[in-house]
Write a structure and sequence with these properties.
Elements lengths: L1 H6 L11 H17 L3 H21 L6
Helix pairs in contact: 2-3
Length: 65
Amino acid sequence: MNFIFMQHGYPPAIVKTNPEQRRKYYEALEKASVEGEATPFIQLIAACVEESLRHYLHALGMEDE
């Protein structure tokens, strides 16, 4: 998934390894695969990509512009 994001100019989706984030990831993944409801998974991954982008912008000194 991250390779595809990066091929299209997006930063990778870094899912944090803390227990709460991991639980949310697995719940969203299960809901998508078992119930066919992909929205929670998409939202979680989008939030991870957004956070990665904020880190990149901060590193470049471009945050909050």
